[in-house]
Design brief:
By secondary structure, the chain is an alpha+beta fold. The protein is built from 13 helices and eight strands. Helix 10 runs antiparallel to helix 11.
Length: about 400
């Protein structure tokens, strides 16, 4: 292991420590701004690890650098989780940012240095000395690399991945307006990506004073339209509802996360705590805003799903069953969706506003909906060739006994 990697790792840890210290000194006025964020630490770790794995698999990063970066990311993530656990009442948007910084700084420094510095130094080759004879990457050197990347993008403005790296780099440095602008360029050049949109929404919120209302809320809806299962988008959507004191909708959004993360995991425990917080607040208001039972029944759709015998042989154990409602002539984004498995067939279902993809796009707001059922081979909510599906006729919210037969193959 080279002296460069060791010393650079120490400097990175110091820089991250300073950033975390400043960010975690949140005053209580931000306490309600992001309750769900604590549950995202594990999800962010997985996303950062996935990026690291891709760089290593593509040969962009050597084995030693990969091992060191992985250890650093894991260490910073675990430290952040342990530091945040006693602060359940604190505002969650700062912990989210702190976790993102703790995870992103090492990965971004390595990525930027590989792209703009001297990667040979990472693998034990000739070490590049700094002006003062040392080998460490200091704050000024990191900023200089980010600025060189920005200059390079002026000559190559169609580099979507470059704009994305610049956006993340500016975010790590706390330069949120510049980060938001770079994200805006990236999303126009890269394929639709829910995680990218969720990160964009979070950055715009930071740039406008940690406010998720307005443009960030619109971007979150776009993210959920791309992937209704994106963890960060769901967490932000729940936080938006929570900030509006719409605790019932917040609970519904966060309950979706519980179906997507391992039971008993740190993410699951964190989101359960957030749900209990919202439930307590709802109870403290006497259930204000809660839908009476009789009225709720008029906004639900229930029924059953079965498989056409002709396609029974194509069903595999482990296939994911999605039952969803969407408008007959509107967006493909569901207004409500529940995830089951092929083992549930024949399955009963109930769809209501707690399963809506967005607090502003609910089942109860529609005059008629079509109920669909899809057996996904990939587990993805988006239809893929080879999936099995079936649809009902248009029905009004409040309809019971809807029968869906899965009888066609997605081409």
């Amino acid at each position: 292991m080279t002296l460069f990697v060791i010393v650079a790792g120490l400097f990175i840890a110091v820089i991250v420590g300073v950033l975390l210290y400043v960010l975690l000194r949140a005053d209580r006025s931000t306490a309600e701004a992001g309750v769900a964020a604590r549950a995202l630490n594990a999800a962010i770790l997985r996303e950062q690890m996935a990026d690291l794995e891709r760089e290593h698999a593509s040969g962009e990063m050597g084995d030693e650098a990969y091992a060191r970066a992985r250890q650093e990311i894991e260490r910073r993530a675990l430290e952040d989780v342990s530091e945040q656990a006693p602060k359940a009442a604190a505002g969650a948007r700062r912990p989210m940012l702190a976790a993102a910084l703790g995870l992103a700084v090492p990965a971004l420094v390595i990525g930027l240095y590989a792209a703009l510095g001297e990667p040979a130094a990472m693998g034990g080759g000739k070490q590049a000395a700094s002006a003062d004879g040392g080998h460490a990457l200091g704050q000024q050197q990191i900023v200089a690399m980010v600025e060189r990347l920005a200059e390079r993008l002026q000559d190559n403005p169609s580099d979507g991945n470059g704009w994305l790296m610049l956006a993340k780099s500016y975010g790590v440095l706390g330069r949120f307006p510049e980060s938001a602008a770079a994200y805006g360029r990236a999303i126009t050049l890269l394929p639709p990506d829910a995680q990218l949109l969720a990160d964009f929404a979070d950055t715009v919120a930071m740039a406008q004073g940690k406010q998720l209302s307005g443009e960030p809320e619109k971007i979150v809806r776009q993210a959920l339209a791309v992937d209704p299962r994106n963890l960060k988008a769901l967490a932000l959507s729940g936080t938006i509802a929570f900030e509006k004191k719409d605790y019932r909708s917040a609970i519904g959004e966060w309950q979706k996360i519980l179906t997507l993360v391992p039971e008993g995991s740190q993410a699951a425990v964190g989101i359960q705590n957030s749900i209990r917080d919202a439930e307590n607040r709802l109870a403290a208001t006497g259930g204000a805003g809660a839908t009476p039972v009789a009225a709720a029944e008029q906004t639900r759709v229930s029924g059953s799903v079965n498989i056409d015998p002709a396609l029974a042989a194509k069903v595999s154990r482990g296939d994911t069953l999605y039952v969803f409602a969407r408008t007959p002539d509107g967006p493909r984004m569901p207004v409500a969706m529940v995830r089951l498995t092929a083992d549930n067939l024949p399955a009963s279902f109930l769809l209501d506003d707690s399963m809506s993809m967005s607090p502003n796009y609910r089942l109860s707001q529609q005059k008629t909906v079509v109920i669909g059922a899809r057996l996904s081979k990939s587990g993805d909510a988006q239809p893929r060739a080879g999936d099995l599906e079936g649809f009902s006729a248009a029905v009004a919210p409040g309809t019971k006994g809807v029968t869906i037969v899965i009888g066609s193959v997605v081409k």
